[in-house]
Amino acid sequence: MGQAVSQPASSPPASCPVHHSPSPSKSSPAQCPIQHENMASSSTLPPAQCPIGHEPDPPINPLNQMPSLSQQPATQQSIALPTSRETSSIPRDESSKWDYPSPQQFYNALVRKGWETPEEHVETMVQIHNFLNEQAWLEILKWERKENPTEDPQLTRFKGRPGELSPKARFWLFAGWLLPSRFNTEPPFDRHDWVVRRRGTGEEVRYVIDYYSAPPEPDGSPVFSLDVRPALDSMGSVKQRIAAATEDVWASLRSDRKVGVTRSDA
């Protein structure tokens, strides 16, 4: 728990795995709980880069830090893109879940930031974006169910922090600088903070999510690594992290001991 978990995307290769949703008003439908870093423009599809910035011109919603994105086709858009939105598995409150952006909204965000993106790849990019959201939420649930196995938490708000390396990401970058043959030398391509509410107590817990690129599958499918853990900003979260680290150490020792016994038997 807390270590990076590699997840192969089930979709064909695409550049940006994550995208921002429009900002909802109080009466508008829920939006997507992910926002991302602004990278340089490219006419190709580079791996593990995200075109969405964090400095929107229109007013932003405090729940997701995102501006409103139109469902109307962009100027010079050559093919029609779907405007339907998929509902996530992530609870927003007692009665609703967060919605993912439509391919048209995704494309409008790319255009707004000046990215030259082939329109035929947009739907695949949205699929990868949604896949990463779901994987991040599953990792959060693993932490939360150790605290309360019967309770389903809610994602109450979130914030992208592009360019801000978490202390843990800095540590692993330093380890990569010291031992590049053993540790990753690439920083995460994005970071998000998700605030989860525990329904029973109303307690809010902040989670940090670092997004890494991983080597692609043999068929070229992109693979991403998510490091999801509670932020060290409360005693409860500190205890969770210590317990998880201890559990990982004991699991590793048991595994090594088992391998040693098997070899001696052989």
Approximately how much beta-strand content do the residues carry? 15-25%
Form type = globular
The helix-strand sequence is EEEHHEHEEEH
User: How many H/I helical runs?
Assistant: 4
State the end-to-end CA separation. 32 Å
Integer count of domains: 2
> Which structural class do the helices and strands define?
alpha+beta
**Considering DSSP H and I runs of 4 or more, what fraction of the residues is helical?**
25-40%
What is the C-alpha radius of gyration, as a whole number of Å? 20 Å
| Poorly predicted segments | 1-30, 33-57
Strand order of the largest sheet: 1-7-6-5-4
Structural features:
266 residues, disordered N terminus, five-stranded antiparallel sheet, two-stranded antiparallel ribbon
